[in-house]
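Blackboard transcription, Thursday session:
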Amino acid sequence: MTTTTPADAPAPGSGPAPGEVVLDASGVTMRFGGLTAVRNVNLDVHAGEIVGLIGPNGAGKTTFFNCLTGLYIPTEGTVRYKGTVLPHRSHLVTQAGIARTFQNIRLFANMTVLENVLVGRHTRTHEGLFSALIRGPRFRRAEQESEERAMELLRFTGLQDKREHLARNLPYGEQRKLEIARALASEPGLLLLDEPTAGMTAVETTATRELVLAVREQGTAVLVIEHDMRFIFNLCDRVAVLVQGEKLVEGTPETVQRDERVVAAYLGTPFEGEPGEAEAAEVQAAEEADTPGAQHGQQEGKTD
Amino acid sequence: MTTQHTTGTPAPGEAATTAPHTSTAGPPPLPLNPDPHTSRKLGRILIGAGAVVSFASTMLPWTWTSAFPGDLTIAMYPAGLQLLTLAAAVLTAAVLLATAGVRGLRWLTPGGKHSTLLLLTVGNLATTWYTAAAIAVELGGIVNFEPGMWIAVAGTALAVVGALALPTDLPPDPSASSTSSAAGTDERPGSWQRLRHALKAPAPGTAAPLPGWAEIVVICAACAIGLYVFAYGIEAEDGPPFIGFLVLAAFVFPALARAGLPKRLSVLAGRNRNTTLAAAFVAALLFPITQSNEAYTNIAVSVLIFATVALGLNMVVGLAGILDLGYVAFLGVGAYTAALVSGAETSSLGIHVPFWAAVLIGAAVALVFGLVIGFPSLRLHGDYLAIVTLGFGEIFRISVQNLDGDSGPNITNGPNGIPNIPDLKIFGFDLGQPHTILGFELGRFANYYLLMLVFTAIVVTVFRRSDDSRIGRAWIAIREDETAARAMGVNAFRLKLMAFALGATLAGMAGTVLAHVEFSVTPESYKFVHTAPPNSAFLLIAVILGGMGTVSGPLIGAALLYLIPAKLQFMADYQLLLFGIALILLMRFRPEGLIADRRKQLEFHETGQLDTPKAATPGLGKTEA
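(Written on the board underneath:)
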């Protein structure tokens, strides 16, 4: 089963017109022994786009993410970022311009908020050990610039007042935000968010949505995994559905929402010979015709 | 209830203790009187009297014979262990006056007051009673006590009773009382709980800002006190005087911590980092001129080498989180390299290069070893890495043992090692000969001590500067979560190799000095575990004991770890056992080490609260400094 909706078709109406292809994953397959977690998935993300990746639990979304970011080496297929094939080392992927967050928050718990973001700057600064030991003016300038940039990101995510707090002491929602700030510090062209609103309240979810939209405004494309359908359908320009390691559908939120197979994947298919509405009404009428006993309600519940 | 006695000390106000009291401010551990105010007053009088009595007792002879170490026989001349009691009495009196609000002394107790007094008086009691016990044991019976000793025993007991009568610093813990009332027997917590509660103290508030010069003066004074305490410890005679010193130190430091002085000091030090470092360096520089005995400067230079190597290990373990159990091998590489190129007669190379070249060669060879060992082993993690580094450490020792001409080429002279390494001459200054500088005589070991101090300063600088940089942050990130660090673009393998090699280089550098100080190098000095430092296990203990990731932690940890075995030779058989016990206790009660960086403190002691850092908190606001 592959796509039925043309994948390269521009999303109608919503969002800015897509630019160049930022991410181009073609034929990505990941096998763990006999288990195929991801099978022949094609996905591309254009500049300035927010793409959602949904699917039931265990569909292989996070595995696919790990294949994109070099944590796993895909068994087959290639991943291109702006036309160049990505190496299978996660720090090189980050250097190339893809940053990510994790499904279960992986901050540097015992570093301060500011230090966390500064670590995110690692690939964009180049001061080595010797310049750190000598501390020339160039080193100082680079450190200062890094700090200014980090503070900018903290202001962007609203964490500027907590710069000296330990990451582990932040409330949950702010930890998620800090993870995004840390990822943004590497100045990515594509940001991968793995369930950014898991465990959040409605208010926090809305704030995260605003944040992701603001990230897009800054010119970073976003690929987001999420289970919160309202969040996904309100946010994304395009949504891809992954079921049992394969891409089922891809298209605009409306297309996906209306697709029967997606509903089936989440809720299950109706079985053959399921009683239709007419039959149900018939049964109900028959029951009402009978003298209703004490168990009437229960029986009705069973019939439904 | 009769559970109100917390110690076995005789309580003069015994009758009063049975009286019930209904004070809502929380019962003091040992109420001398039902009325808290009277009890408080009485307690203070008792402490004051106890301090004065124990002070006076040090002016009297404690025993009749000078056979007991320290000569405690002379009236009006406190010596040896008497000095400790004297110091504790003076400190108690000062804190007592400070809690009474005497002007000019109030800075002594910004945090806890009564808990400080309690610990100080108990410390005085422990030291003094230990002295009494030591006299009784060494000289055979309490018949050897002079009246002064009895007075001291009584005076310290009096002060402890007084301190127990004071109310606690903190209001009673509601959770503790609720658990005991849940037991249904008593509304008030048991004596043990109340003693523990009495030892809790509030954190000091923010200090009023001092003028800049005053801060520097305070830092210098603290360094001077540190120097004096260290010099006293190193000079204390083996056996009872040193144990007494340890006992007192074990009480006085927690007491001062409760008073909040270390916290205040660390805030000051955080504000004036460079001044603090300079003052500490000067204090260390002045150490040899306080010493006249070569034996003590010998210990000091060994402590310094050990501490420097521990600090190098701290970079590997504390910053990058690489558990290296074979670190002493790099010290050995440096020492052997220096021995080979420094013109020792038995050296198989038979060349003699100047010292600076020997240092560079030693460091370079250690660097190469670090890279060669690190390259394959740093692909492993956790336990596996620890085992592999342990293996490499032993491989070094055994290889050196076998490169003796029989089993392999003769390079290291096998188990005999390379003896008779000549003394260093730097710019015509022979470090082997005593010199008189500015009227102070500096012996051989004092010369090497000063040389080693330069290397320690280098390692401290390297540590601080690399810690506070892009590289150091990446190291800490790897330690915290390697996968996340890699996902943030950190080349984890390369950076770990860098930390490993840098640590090896620093150890190799220290090794070049070690070879000259000890005259000879033998493979047996570089074991994984041994009863005396330096060995890999002790180095690691020094780092953990002192506090991982800090500069001063490993230095202090190494000093303690070296001094204690060196001073307690007679306990050599039980040394490892005692270290084991001490480590277990430390890990139970203070897992972050003696000197904790704030990060570690928060890590181990979950407060359940968000931390609210002040401006210039030491160890954290590094990027601003």
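Lecturer's comment: The first strand of chain B starts at residue 425 and ends at 426.
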